[in-house]
Amino acid sequence: MRSLGVPVESGGDDDHRNDTSLVSLRAPLSGVITERKFNAGAGVEAATPIFAISNLSTVYVIANVPESNISKLNIGAVAEIRSPNIGNLNGRVSYIDPQLDETTRTARVRVEVANASGKLRAGMFTEVGFYAGTTAATGEELAVRSTAIQREGDKTIVFIPKDDEPGAYEVREVEIGGEAEGYTIILKGLEIGEKVVTKGSFVLKTQLAKGDLGEHGH
After folding, report:
1. Number of domains in the chain
2. Where are the beta strands (DSSP E) in the chain?
3. Which residues fall within 8 angstroms of residue 53, CB to CB, at 6 or more apart?
4. Rounded to an integer, what distance in angstroms lies between the CA atom of residue 11 and that of residue 218?
5. Radius of gyration of the chain from Cα atoms?
6. pLDDT greater than 50 at residue 9
7. Count of C-beta atoms within a 10 Å radius of residue 184
8. From CA 69, how far away is CA 105, in angstroms rounded?
9. What global pTM score does this model have?
10. How far, rounded to the nearest angstrom, does the alpha carbon of residue 138 sit from its chain's CA centroid?
């Protein structure tokens, strides 16, 4: 609960009509004030909305998805939210509008995103990428940027950075499916949530071929 100090007009005699005082208002929920519905010094009647308060720990990102791609999505699908200002965040599809916009031939897709850091703000523009494959183990969709995929002989591999050993990478063989809009479907070899190298993966492949990765390639 949040207590808000709000200036209100005093009701004293003529000499003190311009005095102000503070009264405490208790909000019904915790959050951030996103709209003020009155001006300082204005009279406020009972039951009049004063502030709009939003809990931004979880937000919705609305993506306009082309008609040709709607059939590839389902509720619960993993999405990546990208912006130069906030980096990358992950979310999940929580709603797919059954009706298309007749002008743009797109459907609105709502992605629910955890926003505890407060990076996402109302009105921001972002790019949204959807994972377009399905893993057999979980039934969830899994794909990576195609720049992460490399070939080593007859193997298809990706490089996974090791959290406990900076600068070291695991070489992981994967089985891939189709490719669409810069993403490649992963059928086997990766789990949702694992990180892979996208920028610089070709350099790592070159080092691997020369034997320069040494103990970093496992």
Report:
1. 3
2. 3-9, 20-26, 32-36, 51-54, 58-66, 78-83, 87-96, 106-114, 127-130, 143-145, 150-152, 155-161, 169-173, 175-180, 183-188
3. 2, 27, 29, 31, 32, 33, 34
4. 78
5. 26
6. no
7. 21
8. 11
9. 0.47
10. 21
Q: Residue 111: which domain range?
A: 56-130
Q: Which two tokens stand for residue 94?
A: 């929580």
d(CA 63, CA 92): 12
Task: Yes or no: say if 149 and 133 are a contact pair by the CB < 8 Å rule.
Answer: no
Q: Are residues 41 and 76 in the same domain?
A: no
* Three-state DSSP state, 156: strand
Q: What is the pLDDT of residues 107-123, one digit of tens each?
A: 999 999 888 788 888 88
- Could you tell me what percentage of the chain is helix, strand and coil, using 3-state DSSP and rounding each to the nearest 5? 10, 45, 45
CATH number of the CATH domain containing 110:
2.40.30.170
pLDDT for position 111:
92
Asked if 141 and 198 sit in the same domain, the reply is: yes
Contact 181, 131 (CB under 8 A): no
Q: Which residues of 128-166 are buried (b: 16+ CB within 10 A; e: fewer)?
A: bbbbbbbbeeeebbbbbbebbbbeeeeebbbbbbeeeee
For residue 2, what are the contacts with CB-CB under 8 A and spacing of at least 6?
Answer: 26, 27, 30, 31, 53
Picking from 52-56, 85-89, 129-133, which range would have the lowest pLDDT averaged per residue?
129-133
